[in-house]
Design a protein that fits this description.
This protein has helices at about 30-35, 40-45, 75-80, 135-140, 155, 165, 215-225; strands spanning about 1-10, 10-20, 20-25, 50, 55-60, 70, 90-95, 100, 105-110, 115, 120-125, 140-150, 150-155, 175-180, 195-200, 200-210, 235, 260-265, 265-275. By secondary structure, it is of the alpha+beta class. The chain folds into two domains: about 1-60, no CATH class; about 60-275, Fumarylacetoacetate hydrolase, domain 2 (Alpha-Beta Complex). Strands 1, 2, 3, 4, 5, 6, 7, 8, 11, 12, 14 and 17 form a twelve-stranded mixed β-sheet that branches. Strands 9-19-18-15-16 form a five-stranded mixed β-sheet, with no helix packed on it. The radius of gyration is 18 Å and the shape is globular. The N and C termini lie far apart (about 40 Å).
């Protein structure tokens, strides 16, 4: 199944893709749906109100996750281009729900940064509460996968040894448009999918999720050791090589560009970089 959160009539609705329409699943958003026991069967059987796919206004696939955990340095080529050694353990940082935007929303470029960069990522969406999950339990906790663009203020990221302040900027991180369940993907909970990012049509990143150093199941195991994972939580699995910061000369988003981040079999984010509106 392909599931999403749709903005409609001033509110949001959880929906599933069925041909050229989106079928209402009887919940206000995917986070609410995933918290319900038996959500997958409910979604599969849904025959509610429909909305056209054409012109759909997608909200973040989960608008208010309890946590967004991100993984840095998880593709070998990106690790090498950033001049780092292969890590023994996942490198974790966090985002907050206020950073998340929809698949086609504008990305607000803060006036405080001069180094605004892109990072296409496969993201795991959690579908069951787990703590210290292992093996089959960790696999079963994966509701599906989506696309995330971990837009980063590099100058703020590297002000200190901790990355958080470069990663959590308001309205900077598109995620969606769909959550795709593992049964629809080659490799299931360890999918092997082509990943790409373009800026104004120029390819900047191109790789396969098969090259992840720490795969999605391992990440669910690792993160859930540290903190409880709840339905709707998101784990961004890291970005491949090709980021602007590692290019020579460095290249950043200045404003006016269209950034497309896509993963085969899952979906496409298309966002325009705009100046942030200030009060």
């Amino acid at each position: 199944m392909k599931l999403a959160t749709l903005r409609v009539h001033g509110t949001t609705r959880a929906v599933k893709l069925d041909g050229d329409v989106l079928v209402d699943l009887g919940a206000p958003d995917l986070g609410t749906l995933l918290a319900q026991e038996g959500w997958a069967g409910q979604a599969a059987a849904a025959t509610g109100t429909t909305y056209p796919v054409e012109g759909a206004d997608f909200a973040p696939v989960v608008p208010r996750p309890s946590k967004v955990v991100c993984v840095g340095l998880n593709y070998r080529n990106h690790i090498q281009e950033m001049g780092r050694d292969l890590p023994e353990h996942p490198t974790l940082f966090a985002k907050f729900a206020d950073a998340l935007i929809g698949a086609h929303d504008d990305i607000a470029r803060p006036e405080e940064t001069g180094k605004f960069d892109w990072e296409v990522e496969l993201a795991v969406v959690v579908g069951a509460p787990v703590r210290r999950a292992r093996g089959e339990q960790a696999e079963a906790a994966i509701a599906g996968f989506t696309v995330l663009n971990d837009i980063t203020c590099r100058d703020w990221q590297f002000r200190t040894r901790e990355w958080l302040q470069g990663k959590m900027w308001d309205s900077s991180t598109p995620v969606g448009p769909y959550l795709v369940t593992p049964d629809e993907l080659p490799g299931s909970v360890r999918p092997a999918l082509d990943v790409r990012l373009t800026v104004d049509g120029e390819v900047m990143q191109s790789d396969s999720t098969a090259d992840l150093l720490f795969d999605p199941v391992h990440l669910v195991e690792y993160v859930s050791t540290v903190v409880r994972l709840n339905p709707g939580d998101i784990i961004a699995t890291g970005t491949p090589g090709g980021v602007g910061h590692a290019r020579r000369p460095e290249r950043y988003l200045l404003g006016g560009e269209t950034v497309v981040a896509e993963i085969d079999g899952i979906g496409r984010l298309e966002n325009r970089i705009v100046k942030e509106k200030t009060a």
